[in-house]
Amino acid sequence: MTGWAADEEFAGVTPQLTVVDTAAAVRFYAAVFGADELLRNHAPDGRVMHCELLVGGGRLLLHDEFPEHGAGRGPIALGGTSVVLHLYVADVDAVFAAALAEGATELMAPQEAFWGDRYAMIEDPFGHRWSVAQRAADPSVAELQERADRWAEDNAGVSPNGAAATERRD
Hints:
By secondary structure, the chain is α/β, with parallel strands linked by helices. It is 24% helix and 31% strand. It has one domain (16-154): 2,3-Dihydroxybiphenyl 1,2-Dioxygenase, domain 1 (Roll).
């Protein structure tokens, strides 16, 4: 292992999201996920350069779009994202309902997933995709494989997140 140092506040991977309106994103993440804002810094023009939230025991960093400085654009400007942020919660149904009430788009309604979780997916108003889950069962490795195989047989052409599969690799 090379080149990284542990930090108590930033253990592991810390997502940094680009959004079109950090203040609105903070309100959404607080209302839906119970996020606590830890700090926020602004650029001279008022845009948010850096915002730290505590969500589910981990840090989430946010900033407004700064394309002129290479800080990028959010998924809305880019036409989508390939990333799904995953969060375990106490009540998937309540979080899902809160997300929709706050302007999220339903990607997958809460359901029992083959891997043992109650699971749902949303896209937040800023274009970021989230999956939320709560443990419903704890299948063995063999049972998990059996469930996955059965799911694949029953859902040919559909990805595990419910979307139509657009590419298959053999």
